């Protein structure tokens, strides 16, 4: 994965968006309910721009899409900027295009192309419904198996081994623990080692990544556990010398958003197999 330099200085970094989400309860839920057809990073980008411009957050579409929906963009409205992945071909030494799948890479560009409902007028739209999410469906789509909980450590809430996870049947916050363990697998932590999570699990970057994914997922879906994750992450941001917003590296923030997106998309009941694979 390669990433282009951000084109515009006023677009916040992923780590900054994540810190916003940690410090502002309800932000992710608002972004998810308004913009769930976009990636979480883009949801937050859209929400931040709407808030800055005093626009009511709501469905966003491109100019032609609004036209299809029977609405038009009001005169003088400025488009919202979102981040789009583009697939590029890598050229080999002879300058020929490589034809196999490995010959491509993904890059990201920022495009000003979208308008919020509040920037348009025309026929009324059906109100949006936040899609339902199903854990079984998500695990199947992510190729993760739920195995019986066999830990004898009573403090253990759950664990992740390779592509298996287990949740303590009496876990205090089962959804939160599920997202946390799935995140360990999705981010690739379990390729490196196994994870058994107790209240005494040391605070390291991999735990921060898993807990941040759990925060994003719990908040987006309105499930219990977000406050616990928030406390954990705020603690991380207040290490030693005091508040340090850069305590979450940009690279980790990217992994966190990508994993949370994958998990949310994998369990959505309103989209079919093929759409979920993207
Ligand atoms: Zn963990």
Choose one word for the global shape. globular
Across the major sheet, the strand order is: 6-8-7-9
What is the succession of H and E elements?
Answer: HHHEHEEEEHEEEHEHHHH
Q: Main sheet?
A: 4 strands, mixed
N→C terminal distance: 16 Å
Low-confidence stretches: 1-9, 95-100
Radius of gyration: 20 Å
User: Any ligands, ions or cofactors bound here, and which?
Assistant: zinc ion
Number of helices: 10
- Give the helix level as a range of percent: 25-40%
Q: What class do helices, strands and sheet pairing give?
A: alpha+beta
Q: Got a strand count? A: 9
Please state roughly what percent of the residues sit in beta strands, choosing from under 5%, 5-15%, 15-25%, 25-35%, 35-45% or over 45%.
15-25%
* Mean pLDDT rating: 87
Please tell me about this protein's structure:
This protein is α+β, with helices and mostly antiparallel strands and 278 residues long. The protein has 10 helices and 9 strands. The strands form 3 sheets. It has a 4-stranded mixed beta sheet, with helices on one face. A 3-stranded antiparallel beta sheet has the order 1-4-3. Strands 2-5 form a two-stranded antiparallel ribbon. It starts with 13 loop residues before the first helix and ends with a helix. The model is unreliable at 1-9 and 95-100 (pLDDT under 50). It binds zinc ion.
């Amino acid at each position: 994965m390669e990433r282009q330099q951000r084109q515009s200085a006023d677009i916040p970094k992923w780590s900054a968006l994540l810190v916003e989400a940690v410090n502002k309860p309800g932000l992710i839920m608002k972004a998810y309910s308004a913009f769930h057809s976009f990636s979480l990073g883009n949801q937050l980008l859209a929400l931040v721009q709407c808030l800055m411009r005093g626009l009511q957050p709501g469905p966003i579409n491109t100019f032609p899409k609004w036209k299809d929906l029977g609405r038009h963009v009001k005169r003088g409205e400025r488009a919202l900027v979102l981040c789009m992945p583009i697939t590029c071909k890598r050229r080999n030494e002879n300058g020929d295009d490589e034809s196999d799948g490995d010959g491509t890479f993904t890059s990201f560009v920022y495009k000003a192309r979208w308008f919020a409902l509040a920037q348009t007028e025309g026929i009324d739209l059906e109100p949006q419904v936040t899609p339902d999410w199903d854990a079984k469906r998500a695990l199947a789509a992510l190729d993760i198996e739920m195995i019986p909980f066999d830990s004898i450590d009573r403090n253990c809430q759950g664990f992740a081994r390779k592509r298996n996870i287990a949740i303590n049947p009496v876990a205090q916050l089962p959804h939160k623990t599920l997202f946390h363990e799935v995140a360990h697998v999705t981010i690739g932590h379990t390729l490196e080692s196994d994870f058994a999570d107790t209240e005494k699990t040391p605070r390291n970057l991999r735990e921060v990544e898993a807990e941040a994914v759990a925060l994003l997922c719990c908040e987006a879906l309105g499930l219990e556990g977000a406050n616990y994750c928030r406390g954990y992450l705020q603690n991380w941001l207040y290490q030693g010398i005091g508040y340090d917003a850069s305590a979450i590296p940009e690279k980790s923030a990217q992994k966190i958003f990508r994993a949370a997106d994958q998990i949310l998309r994998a369990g959505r009941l309103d989209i079919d197999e093929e759409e979920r694979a993207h």
